[in-house]
Structure formats: C-alpha cells, structure tokens
Design a protein that fits this description.
heterotrimer, A mainly alpha, B mainly alpha, C alpha/beta, B: two-stranded antiparallel sheet, 4% strand, C: Rossmann fold, Rossmann fold, 2 domains
Chain lengths: 313, 294, 380
C-alpha cells in the first residue's frame, strides 16, 4: 500500500472541501445573486463545530450539523434584508458582513480565543482510528499505516459529503426549485410576473449557500484541527468566488472543477512557490480574456456527453 | 486630544477620499469595480518612495514619477484586462471583477518580489516641521496633504463639469451606446478614465507615504478595501459621495479609537456600508439610476 | 485579438525578467569528507504572502547553517523547503508532502504558531520530529512527543523585560498596545497583561492594531493623552518600528517595553533614532562579544546583505540542534532522532546555552536589551 500517500489524500481532502465551497457560491449565483460573505458563513460553521466539540464534548457529526444549520440561519438573517440589494452592492455588503464577523471573532476573546484561535479540535480521522482501536481494530490488518488510515478515512468522509452535496444540487437544478432559480437569474421581473415567489426563492438560495459554506467550514475545522480568524479573510472570500467563475458558474460541475484545479495546481507548483501567486494572478486574467464563461459550460458538457456515447451508425 | 484626533481624522479621511475617487470614476463610466486599484495605488507609493528616499529628488518629482508610472499601469490594465472583456457575448457579468482581482494578486506579488515584504521608510524633507496653533500641534505634512487632496478634488470636479472632455466622459458614463452614437469615442473615453483614476491612485500613494512615513506591499489591499466601502457608502459613481464618504470614514475610524475600542476600527467601514445599504441602498449621494443599471 | 496576445507576451516576459533579477544566486555545496550521514530535512516556511519577511530570515538562517554543516562533512543534509504562505492548511499539506513524499527525517518549522497547531499533530501522528523556531504560543510542545521548539516562549521573555524596566524607571502607570489579529502578538499581550497585573501596575488603556496597518496615530494620540510612565507593546518588528517612529514624532517619549518579536535590527533600521529607549527581552543578542555570535553575524551579513535578526538566529541554531542530534543518533532514523533530540542538553549556539526540558520546551536565559545610540545594548 506504499502508493497510498497521505499527502495526496490531504490535497484531495482540501479539493473536496473547496468543491463544497465552490458549490455554495454557485447556488447563490444560480439566482443571479453574488455573495462574498461565504468566508464569513464558513467561519460560523467552523467556529460552532470547533467550540461544540472542544468545550461541550458534542460528538463530531452533531457539531457539524449544528454548525451548518447555524450558518444557514445566519444566511436567512442576512439574506432577507439583502434582497433589496443587487449586483455589486450585494457583493460588497456581504463582503462587509464577513469582515464584521471576523472583527467579532478577533475581539470576542472569551468565546473565540481571539487571534490565537481554537487548537486541538478533534480530527475526524484520528477520532475514528482511536474509536476503532478501542474495539481491537488495527489499520495494519488492511495493510495500512496509521497515518494512511487517518488520511484515507478523512478523504472518504469528505468524498461522501461532496458527492451527496453535488447530487442533491444536481437534482435540485432539474426540479421546480432549480427552474425557478434559473428563471430568476434570467429575468427577475419576468419570473415575478410568471407567479414565481422570488423573495422566497432568493432567500432560499442565499441560505442554502450559507448553509453549505458553514458545512464546509465545520468539515475544515475537523480535518485541520485548528481554526483562527485568519482563515476567513477577504482572500478566502475571493478565492471561493474564483472557484466558481474560473470553473464556470453555469453548471454545478464548473465550481467543482474550478475548486479542484485551483487547489491542485498551486500545490503541484510548490517547487516554484516563489512565483505561485504571480502565475495565479496571470491565470485569472488570461481566463477572463480568453474564456470568460469559465472552463466548464453546458455546451462543453454536451459535447463531452455526445462523444462519450459515441456515434451509432 | 479632541482637536489633535480631529486633524488625524481629516488627514486620513482626505487620503481615503482620493483612493475612493479612483474607484468611483471607473465605476461611474464602466460600471465595474476595479479591484486592482489598491495595488496601483501601492505602486504609486513605492515609486514616490524610490524617487524621494533613494534618489533624493524633491516632492513634485515624486508626484510626477508616481503619476507617470501609475497612468501607464492604468493604460496596460485597460488594454489587457478590461478591453478584451468588453462587449463579448456570453461573458459572465463578473468577468471584469475577476480579471481585475487577478491583476491585483499579480501586482501585489510582483511588488513583493521587487520590494520585499517589509516596511520601507518614506522620507519627506519637511516631515519634522510643525507649528502650534493654541494647544494643538499641526504638522506641515498634514497641511500639505489636505491642500493637495482639496486641489485634486476641486480640479476633478471642475474638469468633469466644465471641459469638453469631462462632458464627454459624463456622457459616456450616462450611456455608453448613446454617447458612441453622438460621436464620442467611447473607447478613448474609457481608457482616459482608467488612466486618470490610476494616476489619482498614484497621487494617493505618495500622500500615504508622506502621512505615515512607511509603506509596504500590503497597503494596497487594506486601503483598497476601505476605498470600496467608501464608494458604497457615498454612492457608486458619485464624486461628491467619495469625498464625503472618505472624510466620514477617516473621522469615524479615528474617533472610534479615541473614544471606543480600537479592535473594531477596521470593521467600522463595513458596519457603515451594511447600515447605509439597508436604509438608503443607493448610498449617501448616489442616484437611483446608478443602481438600476447593474 | 492578435495584438492582445502579443501585448500579453511582452508584459509577461518583462514581469519574469523582473522576478528573476532578484533570484538568489545558487551556492555550491562543499564536497563531503569521510562517510557522512545523509539525511533529508524538511523546512516549512513562509515564502510568499504577508509573513514572508519572517520566513525569509528563517530560511536564510537555515541555509547558512546547512552550508556550514555540509562543509564539515560529518552529516550531509539535503534541505527540502516548502512554502506555507502563513496559512495552516498549506502548512499541513506541506508537512504531509515532506513526511510522505519527500520522506524527510525531520521538519524545521512552520513559522507561525497557528501553522504548528495544524502541522504539529500530523507530524506527531506520523512519528516525525518537528521543531518550530518561531512558534512561541502556549501549548506547542504539548501537541505531542515529536513536537519541539527552540523559540523562547513569551511567557519567559516578557516577565524578565517588564520586571527590569519597572524597577529601573519606577513605572506605575502603563498603556498596553498590541496587534490583536495575530496569535504571536496576542499571546505576548496576554503575558504582558498578566505581568502588569501581578506587579499591581495601573493599566490606563489597552489599544489594539491590525497587521500591516500603516497609521497608528489615533491609538498613539490617545495613549499620549493619558500620560503613562511606559508603554508595553506587543508587536512584530515590522509594525513595531513604525509604531515607535510615529509615537516619538508625536512626543510620546516614555520607555517602550516590547515582546520577543520586537527584537530585530530592522526595528532600528525602520524607526532610526525613534527606536531609542525600546526595551526587549530576547534569546538573541547580535552585539555579543562572543566569537561564535560574531562569526555568525559577519557570515550572515556577507551572504544576505543584512544583519541577522532573532528569526534567523533561532533558525540557525535549530538546524545545528537538529544535526547534532542526528549525529548522536548515528543514522537518519526518525524515532532515534527524536530521542537524541529530546536529550539535547547545554547546546552552545549563537543564542547561548540551550536545553530541552522534560516537555521538549525551551530552557534558556533571556537577555534584556535596550536600544541606545542606535543599537541594542544590555539593559541594566
């Protein structure tokens, strides 16, 4: 099992967390709303899960669930007043929400530990290994080292979460809700005239995005075992946005691809790490100039599907 | 202490206003947010620093140098990152936002490569000159900054309202296609806007260097975010809004530190925009049309 | 479109030309003698992003030590340097890469305590010794038995500086100023506050600032108006130098007591004469007449064109501690290296005498220094 490299699994885990984050902004975007507050919602989920498990000994799955729901609730709270805003205004207002939230995390030291953050958050893989070892299981019986086992379980859990998330929203996009989202994105007034309750759907999409960000945040907390306000800055918000716009914001596979590509490439470019962000910046400009709709768009997917099926004679 | 803090606040506020003007000009004409403006501003500060501290040239030369370099950067930005996106069918309306974010990341890291990550001393020959008005110490630097900002703002307002080019610019801002039909070379107007906005960023960079004596490659980001908040607060595309918003933010940041908690200083800008957007979404001086356009 | 492409190419070429102008010249490693122990040691450091100034000093210190150690020929170290950008997930990924792909025998770094909280548990679980050279927060070695540090924690440095300053200047009223968005400066502040309360000092105000801020006038005007006897300031040198300069300019002339991160020649470079009267406690004192220190300073200055700060010195010593332990272990073996590392006693480095305690934390006596006449001198 030499080939099972925990480093690759680690990068894979970050790809999956980022993919969920990418989907979170895609969902909000699919109603034509741009949110830059997803880093803030992510911090809500991460801190809630971290505090519940370190200070109140809540089991990890319950903590993750609670963190996601809390972030979703915050999404409703922010979403309703934000409905009056659109476009660039909404983007910057939500960015402001994220910055305010970060200021609170830094200043509310008695709860959050301030800039020092929260350390020693139980890591999913290690908790599972400890639980399994108590019951006489040893990773050796699978031919795995301990650290291989830990990384593999984390990866598999995240993979499951990501697949479920993508499957759910893929189905959603073909449902009534998804069609309503698309109608709102195309033309808000026409959608309203057609009897679609746009307020309801916009808040729904916004809070779904917030909930997903919180979910990703909670998973992040339990896989890196440390969170601090520095993880949820403006840079993170922009990064999440870039996943969607680079990968493509017209199909759910777009942000997933964007997240994967933009996580793996900088990692692979580590050897020239001095120039990584310079290349990253260049890449963004070039993408926008030569393929502004993102790498993946429905047309490309259709072409894939056609060639996949082959051409029967 | 109150009067001294007032002067601190006005100095900071007038610099904020100049930074915000750069954003607001570009938004007013193109309807996009130029996320790279902060980094162009940072380069202006560095050029000024090199000219004054390293070459020992006088202040006007530093301003000139900063203006030339940042104007050239503005030109390149428009040609390479904005123009190719314009009028493309099927382009995501966020494309220009992303491409300018790309430019900002690029510039921030190029500056890091060239200048390093540390603080650089920005020497001004008259940094130590001060005089007392009653109980308050006022530094000559603060007066100079205020004067330059006021001159710049007045000049811009006059240019926009009185000159032919300014009128063409406003026509372009009002409606790109109509202005084009009426014989305005809109591409040229757009380029001019980005170049002028960038040059103002260069001036603001030198002012920041003078005010704080130190610059680093991160000031673009921190000042840039403040500038963004100000244009929302003052009203997108509104020149007067940017001026008023800048002053209000500078003063309130200073006074929150003086009479409140310094930990929330950086959050004020964003609390303010959330509040203003909920009460008056078009901003203090914004027109409703500006919002409806996008 | 074609013109665009061409313009792009020209600009890209110009950019790259710029970048590589600053690229470091490669130095040739000296040929080995005898039968050296060959080992790969990983370094996790901040090469890009906000904290790069610190990461640069650290990697410089390590590279200098590497060249010296390899020239001696007893051990032959292959350094694998990875960037963390100051982000813990990148530090974690870097650790995973070093541990599993590069199969290093040990890791030096990461730079920030935050990063260590993410990378440390992983190295510990994988049985790879990891040693922070600048991770001063509470609870670092407690992560696990493979986690070490040679960075003097603030809880040892600050009480020494504060104690001596209070005695000398008869300080009663203090103002506290700290960077509240950074774990290093925040934990330094916690210690300062604790010490001030223990000494029953009157804390007139507590002010904060954020990383990379350029304007501290508002905070300093407020502090000056309250007329404290001293300012306890927990800042890293980059911000600290600017704070001092702006404070002195507005007439706040009282002594400043700083934390560990304030001690750097860069403070004097940044603040010039405004740095006078700054008191710090630190393991690193570059003006010592000790020949080992002198040799290090002159070699560092020759190689990198500036004086080493404590980040460079701690990294330099860390590399020696690591390779000494490696020699004692006799082989590039992770577990053996851990044991011989833990047994390090009375190592004489450029920081002075160094030992690990039973918890793998630092045992050393800090120097209390004051800036006088444009340089750090012993405070008494």
């Amino acid at each position: 099992m030499e080939w099972l490299n925990p480093y690759h699994l680690q990068v894979g885990s970050f790809v999956l967390i980022n993919a969920i984050l990418g989907v979170s902004i895609y969902v909000t975007l699919s109603t034509g709303q741009l949110s830059l507050g997803n880093a803030g919602f992510m911090s809500v989920g991460a801190y809630a899960a971290a505090l519940l498990s370190t200070q109140h000994q809540v089991p990890i799955p319950a903590g993750i669930l609670a963190g996601s729901l809390l972030a979703g609730a915050a999404g409703v709270l922010v979403g309703i007043p934000s409905l009056r805003l659109s476009g660039v205004y909404l983007a910057i207002a939500t960015l402001g929400f994220g910055e305010v939230l970060r200021a609170i995390l830094i200043n509310w030291e008695s709860l959050t530990g301030g800039a020092v953050g929260i350390a020693a958050i139980p890591q999913m893989g290690r908790v599972i290994l400890a639980w399994a070892s108590d019951r006489g299981f040893s990773p050796g019986s699978l031919g795995l080292q301990n650290n291989q086992f830990i990384s593999l379980t984390v990866f598999l859990i995240l993979l499951l979460c990501t697949i479920l998330t993508v499957a759910f929203f893929l189905r959603l996009s073909r449902s009534r809700v998804g069609r309503a989202y698309a109608a709102i994105r195309l033309d808000e007034r026409a959608a309203e005239a057609a009897g679609i309750p746009i307020t309801y759907y916009k808040v729904l999409a916004f809070s779904q995005g917030a909930l997903l960000s919180g979910f990703a945040g909670a998973l992040f907390a339990h896989s890196t075992s440390f969170v601090s306000p520095g993880d949820f800055t403006y840079h993170r918000a922009v990064e999440i946005l870039v996943f969607a716009v680079f990968g493509g914001s017209e199909h759910i596979f777009g942000p997933v691809f964007g997240a994967a590509f933009l996580t793996v490439v900088p990692e692979a470019l580590r050897s020239i790490s001095d120039y990584r962000y310079i290349l990253y910046g260049l890449l963004l400009v070039l993408m926008m100039v030569f393929r502004p709709q993102g790498v993946i768009d429905p047309a490309l997917l259709r072409r894939f599907r056609r060639s996949g099926k082959g051409t029967p004679a | 202490m109150f009067l001294e803090q007032l002067i601190n606040g006005i100095t900071l506020g007038s610099i904020y206003a100049i930074v915000a003007l750069g954003y607001t000009l570009v938004f007013g004409v193109l309807g996009i947010i130029n996320m790279a403006h902060g980094e162009i501003f940072m380069f202006g500060a560095f050029v000024g620093m090199l000219i004054m501290s390293k070459a020992g040239a006088p202040l006007p030369v530093a301003f000139l140098g900063a203006i030339v370099i940042t104007a050239a950067m503005g030109l390149l930005l428009e040609r390479l990152a904005l123009r190719p996106l314009r009028g493309r069918p099927g382009a995501s309306h966020l494309a220009s936002l992303i491409s300018t974010i790309g430019v900002s990341i690029l510039l921030e890291n190029v500056a890091h490569k060239i200048f390093g990550a540390g603080n650089h001393l920005f020497e001004t020959p008259f940094a130590e000159i001060s005089f007392k008005i009653g109980p308050v110490t006022v530094y000559l630097v603060q007066v100079v900054i205020l004067l330059i900002s006021l001159l710049l703002m007045a000049g811009l307002a006059l240019w926009l309202s009185r000159t032919r080019a300014g009128k063409a610019l406003r026509a372009t801002a009002e409606n790109l296609e109509t202005a084009g039909l009426l014989g305005v070379d809109t591409n040229r107007m757009i380029t001019a806007t980005v170049v002028i906005a960038s040059a103002m960023g260069g001036v603001a960079g030198v002012l920041v260097g003078m005010a704080f004596n130190y610059i680093n490659n991160q000031i673009g980001l921190s000042m840039g975010l403040k500038g963004l908040a100000i244009i929302i607060f003052g009203g997108m595309g509104s020149v007067y809004g940017a001026m008023a918003g800048g002053l209000i933010l500078g003063l309130s940041e200073t006074f929150v530190v003086a009479y409140g908690s310094s930990g929330y200083r950086d959050a004020i800008a964003f609390v303010a925009i959330i509040v203003i957007l909920l009460i008056k979404p078009q901003g203090l001086f914004g027109q409703t049309t500006a919002e409806a356009r996008r | 479109m074609k013109r665009n492409v061409r313009l792009f190419a020209v600009v890209a070429c110009a950019l790259f030309a710029f970048m590589f102008m600053g690229a470091e010249k490669a130095r040739k490693p000296a040929p080995p003698k005898g039968e050296p122990i060959k080992a790969k040691i990983g370094v996790i450091s901040i090469i890009t992003g906000q904290g790069a100034a610190y990461g640069e000093a650290i990697t410089n210190g390590i590279k200098l030590a590497r060249d010296e150690v390899n020239a001696k020929g007893e051990v032959l170290i292959d350094l694998k340097i990875e960037d963390s950008s100051g982000k813990q997930e990148q530090a974690l990924a870097a650790a995973q890469k070093l541990i599993n792909s590069e199969k290093v025998v040990a890791i030096i770094g990461p730079t920030l305590s935050n990063e260590m909280f993410a990378a440390g548990p992983e190295a510990n679980a994988s049985g790879v010794p990891i040693m922070g050279t600048s991770t001063t927060a509470k609870g670092i070695p407690q992560i696990g038995k493979f986690v070490f540090r040679n960075a003097l924690p603030e809880s040892q440095a600050i009480p020494a500086a504060v104690g001596q300053a209070v005695k000398k200047y008869n300080i009663k009223k203090v103002a506290l100023l700290y960077g509240n968005d950074d774990a290093f400066t925040k934990s330094g502040f916690d210690t300062m506050k604790e010490v001030a309360e223990k000494l029953k000092l009157d804390i007139v105000t507590i002010q904060t600032f954020q990383k990379g801020q350029a304007d501290y006038k508002a905070q300093l005007t407020k502090i000056a108006s309250l007329k404290p006897d001293a300012v306890f300031c927990s800042a890293l040198y980059n911000e600290g130098g600017v704070i001092l300069a702006q404070a002195r300019k507005m007439g706040l002339k009282v002594p400043f007591v700083g934390g560990n991160g304030f001690n750097s020649p860069q403070v004097i470079e940044i603040a010039k004469e405004a740095a006078e009267g700054l008191i710090v406690a630190t393991p690193w004192f570059g003006e010592k007449s000790d020949p080992q220190v002198k040799a290090f300073v002159s070699k560092y200055e020759k190689a990198y064109g500036k004086k080493p700060d404590q980040f460079a010195a701690q990294a330099y010593d860390a590399f020696y501690i690591m390779t000494n332990a490696l020699r004692a272990a006799g082989a590039a073996d992770r577990a053996k290296l851990r044991d011989s590392l833990a047994a390090t006693k009375n190592f004489q480095g450029v920081l002075g005498k160094f030992s690990f305690d039973a918890e793998r934390d630092v045992v050393m006596a800090p120097n209390v220094l004051i800036v006088k006449g444009g340089k750090f001198t012993i405070f008494n």
